[in-house]
Amino acid sequence: MEDYYSDEEKSLKRSLDDEFSRMKENSKKLKDERFALEKEIEELEKISQSNKSLEEETISEQSEQNESEKDELERTLKDSVDSGQKSKSKESLEEETISEQNESEKDELKRTLDDSEEEVSENDLEDETAGSDIEEEVEEISDPCVKHFEFTLPDECTEAALSPKNPRLKYKLAEEVEMPGLGQMNFFKMFPHLESPPLDKKNISEFALKKNLLSTVSQLKKQLTGLEMSFLNIITNYIDVLFTKQYFKVREKLRRAYCIHILNHILKSKARIIHHNSKMKKNPQAEYRDQGFTQPTVFILAPFRGDCHRIVNQIISLMPPKCKVMNKTRFEKDYGPTGAKSKNKPEDFYEIFDGNNNEDFKIGLRIQNEHITLFSDFYKSDLIIASPLGLRPIIGDTDNRQGDADFLSSVEVFIVDRLDVLVIQNPVHLGHVLLCMNHLVKKEHGNKKINYFRVREYALDKKAKYYRQNIYLSAVENSSFVYNYYMSHCYNYVGHMRSHDWVAHPIIEFIYPAMQMCFRVLDSDNPQQEYKDRRKFFTEKILPEFVNDKSTVQTLIYVPSYFDYVELRHHFRTSEISCFMMCEYTDKGKKAQGRDLFFKGHRHFMLYTERTHFYFRHWIKGIQHVIFYKLPTYPKFFREICNSLMDSHPKRKDEERTCTVIVSPRDFLQLKHVVGIQEADKMLKSKQKTFVKYVGS
Fold first, then answer.
1. Which residue, 472, 494, 614, 672, has most beta carbons within 10 Å?
2. What 8-state DSSP symbol labels residue 592?
3. Pairwise CA distance, residues 519 & 503, whole Å
């Protein structure tokens, strides 16, 4: 019996030994294949030092080969593991050890494969990173991109700016520049002693564009206009811009210009990082500060999906013809034209709402030399395009405790496209997004850890906002744009340029019904308290004159700000003043009923918000008097409201029509479009507080 068990034991041991030998051979084979793969990766690195055409062909072939080898290796590993599992004995500790070793080797090999894939995909970004070309292109001292982000900002400047007593940087008017196509631009500098960058380049080859981008731009069917060249002269020098002439006819030209700029910035920044990576492999002691906390470096705010659709298509048109665009079908479905159009609206209404009018959107773009990925994760994107409404649920409330805004921490180029529309949509959302930019990150995101040894020093020192370029585009001039959004959030050390609009024909010349127009100047010394002073001035001085006079029935009160509308609505209700209140949220049936009551004179006042007029362009009938609580954002709105007095009630056609306007010294930019520059300057500087004009036929 003992001999029987002894033979059985020997037989089992022989089978285990055979299985062990077989698994050992498999393990050796896997190691050999891994070493072969490492050699292939080394070959890839050597190939990446060759010329552009050879590099592209070799990398694509090698990528396919790596994929097939990876699949084959995974199948081999799977077969070997399955085979080991079938012959595994519960009593055999040796077999368990072999299996564990095999699994660890499998994991290690998969990690190696993943790393090789990462390396290949990174190599795909480098169309010109090989040889000395990239060194000449990226390291060139005259490159505006390198000069801007490697400038060392004096400590005393930021200390003064961060001081509670002086929360703003001091900018002084350095010069007035006449730019072809743009008109007069005022250049404000923080450091007057710094030499002004050249703004007279006339050839696209002078803008230090990346070579592949320069080739594409040079071959465009529609060549760059004088306006686009002038705009490129400004923005490629990383100067902040507030341009208030973004009319419908030039909107796409401005977009093409800034798309060239942001593509150049993204591609050059990536090439610079890759170039430094190769240098650090040769010299591990080398140190380069060329990154931010997160990957997104360009951020564009736009009001509608239709605007995003045009911007993305503009970017695609500037890429090489063989550029591959991922998720394009989904993008066209979600962001393409809807086909729904309103009827019987003014021409500028169709210009504002041209395309998809959805205000809730956000999209990330990962941009490579010949590859664009749409809908990429924010933390893997180079460019983010969004609306304030689309971002608000992500970035959270004002305290930002629940939200995530880390993807805005490393923005280097910030563009606000159609600022005028964004402010009307919701100024609170817009202001909150501006406050969330260029902060220190709260945590690391994804699998990629932050290499703090590569993060720019100014970002670590909380000085990133002084290097960020801000490009604000608007169709109208407005004082709140300048002070509340531009000057309060733009700190670029290079300086900023603002357009200057000359008014040849003020709006007052295009008002047709005869009326008495009275401008009441509000004397408010404190800009922070102006909204309170305005409300007090209206409720205590203007409104009583109309409430106590029966001839002022059918008076429309135009209120640009929704917050002012809420406060006035409360005042009318508590004072029990006869008034119909219309805002953009008012039900369609209630609007019709209220407008009918107002037309027949059953309501003394109508409280009417600018957002209602912006979205619906109502032609209100029955208005006999109008009060502008504040001048409209768009000068055209002033003309439309005043001209609607032509449709007053038939029984009151012969009665006097009046228009009362409340203005303050901070309303100069809006007022000059209504009455002209000289007249506006006279009104706001005079000691006289009331100005009466008679307009119309």
1. 472
2. H
3. 19
Is the pLDDT reported for residue 59 higher than 90? no
In the block, which residue shows the tokens 């990133």? 464
How far apart are the two ends of the chain, measured CA to CA in Å? 129
Cα-Cα-Cα-Cα torsion 174, 179, 185, 190, nearest 10 degrees, comes to -40
Q: Please give the full DSSP string across 1-70, using - where no structure is assigned.
A: -HHHHHHHHHHHHHHHHHHHHHHHHHHHHHHHHHHHHHHHHHHHHHHTTS-HHHHHHHHHHHHHHHHHHH
| 488-512 residue pLDDT tens | 899 899 999 999 888 989 999 999 9
Q: Helix axis angle, 211-218 relative to 251-282, nearest 10°? A: 160
Consecutive H or E run containing 351: helix 347-352
Q: What angle do CA 420, 421, 425 make, to 5 degrees?
A: 125
pLDDT recorded at residue 56: 52
Give 127's pLDDT tier (boundaries 50, 70, 90).
very low
The mean pLDDT value of the chain amounts to 84
Contact criterion met (CB below 8 Å) for 465 and 434: no
Structure tokens given for 13: 């041991």
Using alpha carbons, list the distances in angstroms from residue 680 to 459, 476, 665.
44, 17, 9
Do the Cβ atoms of 685 and 523 come closer than 8 Å? no
Contacts of 670 (CB under 8 A, 6+ apart): 477, 478, 479, 631, 632, 633, 635
The Cα 163–Cα 115 span in angstroms is: 47
Angstrom distance (rounded) from CA 90 to CA 622: 94
**Which letter, b or e, does each residue of 79-116 get, where b requires 16 or more Cβ atoms within 10 Å of its Cβ?**
ebbeebeeeeeeebeebeebbeebeebbeebeebbeeb
Cα–Cα distance, 394 to 405 (Å, whole number):
7
Burial class (CB in 10 A: 0-12, 13-18, 19+), 124: middle
Predicted confidence band of residue 270 (pLDDT cuts 50, 70, 90): very high
CB environment 233-260: b (16+ within 10 A), e (fewer) = bbbbbbbbbbbbbbeeebbebbbbbbbb
Summarize the confidence of residues 122-132 as an average pLDDT. Answer: 43
Give me the pLDDT at residue 93, please.
36
**Which residue from 440, 492, 496 is spatially nearest to 468, judged by alpha carbons?**
492
Provide the pLDDT for residue 46: 61
What's the CA gap between 177 and 373, in Å, rounded?
A: 39
Looking up tokens 């490697």, which residue turns up? 150
The separation between CA 65 and the C-alpha centre of its own chain, rounded to angstroms, equals 40
DSSP bridge partners of 270: none
Q: How confident is the model at residue 116 (pLDDT cuts 50, 70, 90)?
A: very low
Residue 575 CA: distances (Å) to CA of 12, 534, 547, 579: 101, 18, 11, 11
Question: What angle is formed at CA 359 by the lines to CA 354 and CA 364, rounded to 5 degrees?
Answer: 100
Beta bridge partners of 623: none
What is the pLDDT, as a whole number, of residue 626?
97
The tokens describing 292, both together, are: 């931010």
Query: What one-character DSSP code corresponds to residue 370?
Result: T
pLDDT tens per residue across span 7-55: 656 666 676 667 667 776 766 666 676 667 666 666 666 655 554 454 5
Q: Provide the 3-class DSSP secondary structure of residue 537.
A: helix
Mean of pLDDT values over 556-561: 96
pLDDT digits (tens, 9 = 90+) for 571-589: 999 999 999 999 999 999 9
- 566/76 Cα distance (integer angstroms): 71
